[in-house]
What we know:
InterPro entries: Glyco_trans_2-like (IPR001173), Glycosyltransf_2 (IPR050834), Nucleotide-diphossugar_trans (IPR029044). By secondary structure, the protein is α/β, with parallel strands linked by helices. The chain has 2 domains: 5-210, Spore Coat Polysaccharide Biosynthesis Protein SpsA, Chain A, CATH 3.90.550; 230-336, no CATH class. It has 14 helices and 9 strands. It has helices at residues 15-26, 46-56, 70-80, 99-109, 136-142, 158-163, 176-184, 207-210, 212-229, 236-247, 254-274, 279-295, 302-310, 321-336, and strands spanning 5-11, 33-40, 60-65, 85-89, 94-95, 115-123, 129-130, 155-157, 190-201. Strands 1, 2, 3, 4, 5, 6, 7, 8 and 9 form a 9-stranded mixed β-sheet that branches. Helix 1 links the parallel strand 1 and strand 2. The termini are far apart.
Amino acid sequence: MTPFISVTMGVYNGEKYLVKAIESILNQTFTDFEFIIINDGSTDGTSAILHRYEQLDPRIKVYYQDNSGLAIALNRGLELAQGKYFATMDADDICLPERFAKVFTFMEANPEVGICGGWHKTIGQYSYVEKYPTDNATLRCRLLFTTAFSQPTVLMRREFLVKANLSYDPAHKYCEDYGLWVKASKHFPLANLAEVLMLHRTHPNQVTQSCSNDQQAAAKHIRLAQLATLGIQPTAPEADLHESIRILTFPVTKDYIQQGHNWLLKLKKANAKVLTYNELALANILGQRWFYFCSAATELGVWTWKTFWQSPLSKSADLSWQDKLKFAVKCGIKRRSQF
């Protein structure tokens, strides 16, 4: 019988955390799924672990390939998938038991949505909840700066992926999911549930740590392509400025803060002409980015406080009173320390 969900996991030398990742899928309260695992040329004990689980549970189907990268592995899983929905799993994360059940229920009730995920909580050296927007308009705007989903929480409507001819691009090395979200956002609505569905493990061997430079270069390429849809072909300094606003690492000078402000206004004005993005949603995302940018420059003291609030971008930042108070105190403390 055809399962409702086809979940694919690509794994390369993942023996350390693999058992917990597999068990978290097998222990889902929603049980109507197939579990496609692609062993991407592992040389450690991964193969033995996969063989053991394949014998224990008929829903598990293990496939082997030479080391080709995660995008190739996930695309193979997508080709093999039979379910109505397609999901992915990382070999070092842990899904909470109702991950499938909760997102499945939402997707069944909202047939226009093509991809839905949720929040995750990090485990490892640091512990915090990574929250994502829930509405389509904001998610599309967020993609201008960063990803819109926690990949091991999503369900994707496979029919929509096939119809739009969507797959993971191997050229987007180490951020193939980000590239897929951007392409998908042009074809159908996106959504997230406002609750934690997965525990995301942070450790020194994960891609974001060991392959950070390659990942950031690929992600930058994806962002530049989105700027082109606004009619913007940024200069090299502008492209670097956009990245600085994203990662909040930059020279803290008044001139650079003004450059960042002008760049965000440029994005807003460009969209007003072509209406690629919902204007209110984009204003909110740009307002938040302006706040984060200024919050990283509080060492400039009261000047930063005034500059932030004098900008029209601040009106759409949607800040809590706690955010405002913390920002004010930091600017004031930094200012007093100069005397």
